[in-house]
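hi!! sorry for the late reply, been swamped w classes. u asked for the two structures so here they r. pasted raw, havent cleaned anything up. first the sequence of the first protein and right below it the tokens
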Amino acid sequence: MELLSMEKVKDGKYLKNYELTYINKAGREKKYEIVSRSEIAGSEALGRRVSGVSIVAYHEDKMLLLKEFRMGVNRFVYNLCAGMINEGESMEECIQRELYEETGLSVKKIRNILPPSFSAVAFSDVKTQIAFVDVEGSFEDHTSENEQIVANFYTKEEVRELLETEEFSSRAQMAAYYFMIS
């Protein structure tokens, strides 16, 4: 596989669309579309920038999950608290800000921040980190008028029920499953 060229085909407010031209393993030219949160200067920059964080949060023996309306699928799904890192912001500052904005909670302790991983490798170069945190405080809504989020803590048994009956983002589903079986 060899990347021959990359061209930006659309410049949206949050996502940029690129068309990549490859030579596939059979020696034929193939066009491939991707989206990115970043302005990509060249092929060497693909997948290099970390754009945000997903937060797996716990309070005592419960896990935080958000039930949020996602326009891309036109329904409510269970998700992790997550968001994009602002220019000049540290990952720790991003975690604290996003948690507060989406739930009103604060970080009690950061347990671990995993190395960057790709969020949707089939069609995007978006790279994020996953943080595991303990939280405290009470729920407050600080979201914009464009977000509809209900945050709640769930026991292992409640998570088991949700996994059997509700729709999740893939990262939230995996985190919830491992919380449930631990």
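now the second protein. again sequence first, tokens right under
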Amino acid sequence: MTRLTIYDISKLAGVSIATVSRVLNGSPNVRPVTKDKVLGVMAQHGYTPNAFARGLGLNTMRTIGILCADSSDLYLAKAVYHMERRLREKGYSSVLCCTGYDFADKESASRLLLAQKVDACILVGSNFVSESDTDNRYIRDAASQLPVMLLNAAYDYPNVYCALCDDTEAVQNVTCRLLDCGIKDILFFYDSTSYSGQKKRAGYREGYLSRNLPLREEYQQYFPGSHDDVKGMEDFLEGLFQKGITFHAVVASDDILATAALKFAGRHSLCLPQDFSVVGYNNSLLAACCEPELTSVDNRLEDLCSILVHTLANVLGGQDMPQKVVLTGKLVTRKTTVF
């Protein structure tokens, strides 16, 4: 017989998961008729609280599982740092699994965390959400047992909570500002086809369309190499130039790609920002270390981590919380753009 989860109980009783958690916790903030209904469903189906229920206050281990694809990635490493710090402030410890980018490894790591009876799971980075919904099965399976929190991605499913930046809007705004400065040949340079990567590319495309300008596929270039191979990125841009693809601005999907664009400009003795403009993304430490300092979109990573942990703590406390929070990115202008 299949073991029922707290999600099953909420569905059978016609109430939210938060309401079921309040009943499990003995909260007085539940109407007697609702409490009796939930308890009746539990009794009818022989339900006993599992690891998720413990995470709601019954002998909780107060431990959160964190999945991260690559801890050497600047953005992901910073996210894990902020997440762990916020969790400690809330009285939670954490278990970190670095999964890599293969689906099978993500699924295996998810099962490992569930077996360790963590109270919730945080998926750090948009690469955990796949275009193929079949590959998102492990998210649904986990969410049937405990809260799943997604950083910088969105997935609409019960017991899944998301905090993300509107990457599409941010890149569209940057693209429009460059176009309005008279730069029509803007190269969009990206190295990820993740949820976030696709949203950024969509923003670039919408920028051109909003100005009634033609989109050219050769100005949307994917770098297939390692995320820290700056020399390879620079050579990739040089290869485009040698093929006759000329451009006077680069909008990069992260700051590392943008630093490669700066090196490309230096190779050709281009004067920034008069002759050539570059915009990065993430507003990482690299943006301030470059020469000239890099204009970059701040996707408000620390705010997103704070929101996600706040949501998590309240969900585990039995409160109803929004399943998606979307923040607006902030453009930090420095010396690589005229605006």
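hope this helps!! also noticed smth abt the second:
DSSP finds 13 helices and twelve strands in the chain.
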